[in-house]
Write a structure and sequence with these properties.
Layout (H helix, E strand, L loop, with lengths): L2 E5 L5 E4 L16 E3 L7 H8 L2 H26 L2 H33 L5 H26 L9 H38 L6 H13 L3 E6 L4 E4 L1 H7 L3 H4 L13 H14 L9 E6 L5 E12 L5 E10 L1 H23 L1
Antiparallel strand pairs: 1-2, 1-3, 4-5, 4-8, 6-7, 7-8
């Protein structure tokens, strides 16, 4: 009976007595395969495998700040000062965790989204820094005056204003975080979707993997998620070096601003005219040399019609371009001779 081997990079399942030399989907070598049924199990390993620092750090202020506000309300209703003391400690802990949340969020932004300059990331960064600033102000006011809540004056109102601002920040951070989580979930569902019977899946993988043309796919952040053997041959870059890199890897530097402007428009509109026609553009190989490339694209969408990525089918047309150039020069020379005659 065949064994089931799973690629830990892309999730591809291989049925055989031994794992393949390379994953036909993502190109990873056989060391990245595990035997299903022999994976490490148990709660400690499960926790370590799924642990992500940023979501954990972000949930501290999301939970503690509203709780602190509730404790302050209880303090006013009951007159028990212990609720106010507990609220101050919660604000202190929530504020101390914000730098960890910001640092881990910046790391995830660059690792999983290629550092793409989408407005949602800047909104989250701005809200986190505002949350940190308001928390520090509230802590300094309360630390300098333990009886702050019991006194009447402008310092107490500033403290309440800071707490209200922190509440708004954590609500908006949670809102934008859920948007990103939904996008990531949609991409994961797309990766793991069933493409048909096992035979059809093998055929599709073989077509994509072995096609002489470069077949490249990138997620909505412009990070390369598929790199076939044709891409390896044309660009001189092996799959392991290309996977997880930005598309800047193959775009000449003087073309990048124009590319990302067009990319942003396509991500917003969900449509591109290059799905129906070919586009010829300059590209760069792994050694830095430029060549003329011709490509068309396929928009990748989920069941709801939301974009999850873009795939491109590309070929090197440098020789064709040179022939056309020589032909144009010859035609021009003939035309000049006729004009002179």
């Amino acid at each position: 009976m065949s064994k089931r081997w799973k690629c830990t990079v892309c999730g591809y399942i291989h049925l055989d007595e031994a794992p393949p030399e390379n994953c036909p989907v993502c190109g990873s070598d056989r060391s990245m395969f595990i035997l299903l049924g022999a994976e490490k199990s148990g709660l400690p390993h499960s926790l370590m495998a799924t642990f992500k620092l940023h979501p954990v750090a972000a949930h501290f202020p999301n939970g503690l700040v509203p709780t602190a506000a509730f404790f302050l309300l209880l303090c006013f209703l009951t007159g028990n000062s212990s609720f106010e003391s507990a609220a101050f400690k919660l604000i202190l802990v929530a504020t101390m965790v914000v730098p960890v949340s910001v640092a881990s969020g910046l790391y995830d932004w660059h690792k999983h989204f290629g550092g793409r300059r989408y407005s949602i990331f800047f909104k989250k960064i701005g809200l986190a820094l505002t949350l940190l600033t308001l928390g520090l102000i509230a802590i300094s006011l309360r630390y300098g005056d333990p009886e702050l809540i019991a006194t009447v004056g402008w310092r107490r109102w500033i403290f309440f204003f800071c707490l209200l601002g922190m509440l708004n920040c954590v609500m908006l951070l949670g809102h934008y975080g859920s948007i990103l989580a939904t996008q990531v979930s949609a991409m994961n569902r797309t990766k793991g979707s069933n493409l048909g019977s096992s035979i059809n899946q093998d055929w599709l993988r073989a077509i994509v993997t072995l096609a002489p043309d470069a077949i490249i796919a990138a997620d909505t952040g412009g990070v390369i998620r598929l790199w076939n053997q044709g891409a390896e041959r044309i660009f001189g870059i092996v799959s392991g070096q290309a996977m997880g890199q930005s598309l800047d890897l193959i775009i000449p530097e003087n073309q990048r601003n124009r590319h990302w402007e067009g990319w942003a428009k396509v991500m917003l509109s969900g449509e591109s005219r290059y799905g129906q026609e070919l586009l010829r553009v300059p590209a760069i190989r792994g050694d830095g040399s430029r060549f003329s490339a011709e490509f068309s694209i396929v928009m990748l969408k989920d069941e709801a019609g939301k974009i999850t990525g873009v795939a491109a089918i590309l070929r090197d047309v440098s020789e064709q371009w040179e022939r056309e150039k020589r032909l144009r020069e010859q035609l021009q020379a003939c035309h000049d001779k006729e004009s002179m005659g």
